[in-house]
Design brief:
Elements (H helix, E strand, L loop, with lengths): L1 H28 L2 E2 L3 E4 L8 E3 L11 E2 L4 E4 L2 E8 L7 E3 L1 E4 L2 E2 L2 E8 L6 E9 L8 E8 L5 E7 L8 E4 L9 E8 L2 E6 L2 E6 L9 E8 L4 H4 L8 E11 L38 H11 L24 H11 L7
Parallel strand pairs: 1-9, 4-7
Antiparallel strand pairs: 2-19, 3-8, 5-6, 6-7, 6-19, 8-18, 10-15, 10-19, 11-12, 11-18, 12-13, 13-14, 15-16, 16-17
Length: 334
């Protein structure tokens, strides 16, 4: 009898432990990226990303619709608009990675939406939907005042770490880079390559997905202000980067604007400027992809040789890769 009681007690203990440990085991067993990751938003890559097609409920007064995540001129665009005949008055977009990411440096280049009652965001998240504890790290822009960025994080559903940073510019007027370095004992937040804040309490531990969304609030007027129903509103994103080893020392965060390389002789054509507008930017990248996919058979620029970025006498995917590396500042010039 004594042995049987002990056996029953041990079985009960193992069952309890399995309930406690299981969610954390699943987090560790998920696909966690541990190599550098760069996504330039020229098109929808369904192998790495997904468009949300559901509603979060709670304070989110919208339903996520894939139609509200679009791509144009080298940008991913989230659009908040009216929703007719549905359970929610508004529809908007959420874009999220399929893989999970852990400690490291995360960066986005984006332009926030401006309007009272809304939020534009860049964040990592995992939670009960992934069979994980709720861990999250946020960079959010409250549309009522886009001269500030709000930093926050959650560990096992516990937040309360909000910090409002004065940017010194309006995040809705132009593209800027925002990032954070997540480590076991701190989170450093960056704006345009400069570290602006460090958090050290209650740091999250569970790898999460990279996410971006745009949404109107409900029941949070004290925080966001009362949404006035204005539509459409858009937040725009150019790229996302992740470096597991932290901020790259030999590849600093991009500056707010992309400066095209200038030939020594101003009469020479500009390498990579395939649309002939005198600049090398995401528009050229989009045109280059259309050319390689045979959607177009010529570039708008007169001198087609500008597309031979690596000067090997061919126009192919190697040139496109080099152009991409230039746009994300992995190389200084073309």
């Amino acid at each position: 009898m004594k042995n049987r009681v002990i056996s029953l007690l041990m079985a009960s203990l193992l069952l309890v432990l399995s309930v406690i440990v299981a969610p954390f085991y699943k987090a560790e067993a998920a696909t966690v990226v541990n190599t550098p990751f760069v996504a330039v938003f020229s098109n929808f890559d369904s192998s790495q990303w997904e468009k949300a097609d559901w509603a979060n409920g709670s304070v989110f007064n919208c339903v996520w619709k894939p139609s509200q995540v679009t791509f144009s001129n080298g940008k991913m665009i989230l659009t908040l608009d009216r929703e007719y005949g549905g359970s929610y008055p508004y529809k908007s977009g959420e874009y999220r990675s399929k893989s999970f990411f852990g400690y490291g440096y995360y960066e986005v280049r984006m332009k926030a939406a401006k309007n009272v009652g809304i939020v534009s965001s860049f964040f990592t998240y995992t939670g009960p939907s992934d069979n994980n504890p709720w861990d999250e790290i946020d960079i959010e822009f409250l549309g009522k005042d886009t001269t500030k960025a709000q930093f926050n994080w959650y560990k096992n559903e516990v937040g309360g770490n909000e910090y409002l940073h004065n940017l010194g510019f309006d995040a809705s007027q132009d593209f800027h880079t925002y990032g954070f370095e997540w480590r076991p004992d701190y989170i450093d937040f960056y704006v345009d390559g400069k570290k602006v804040y460090r958090g050290t309490r209650n740091i999250p531990v569970t790898p999460g997905k990279i996410m971006m969304n745009l949404w109107p609030g409900k029941g949070v007027d004290e925080w966001l202000g009362r949404y006035d129903g204005r539509t459409p509103l858009q937040a725009e994103y150019e790229y996302v980067k992740y470096y597991p080893n932290g901020v790259p020392q030999d590849n600093p965060t991009p500056t707010p604007t992309i400066a095209p390389s200038t030939p020594t002789n101003p009469n020479l054509p500009l390498k990579g400027d395939v649309n002939g507008d005198g600049h090398v930017n995401s528009s050229d990248y989009s045109l280059f992809k259309r050319y390689l996919l045979r959607v177009i058979d010529r570039f708008p620029v007169g001198d087609q040789s500008v597309a031979d970025v690596n000067r090997d006498g061919r126009i192919d995917s190697t040139d496109l890769t080099m152009l991409k590396r230039y746009l994300i500042r992995a190389i200084p010039s073309l």
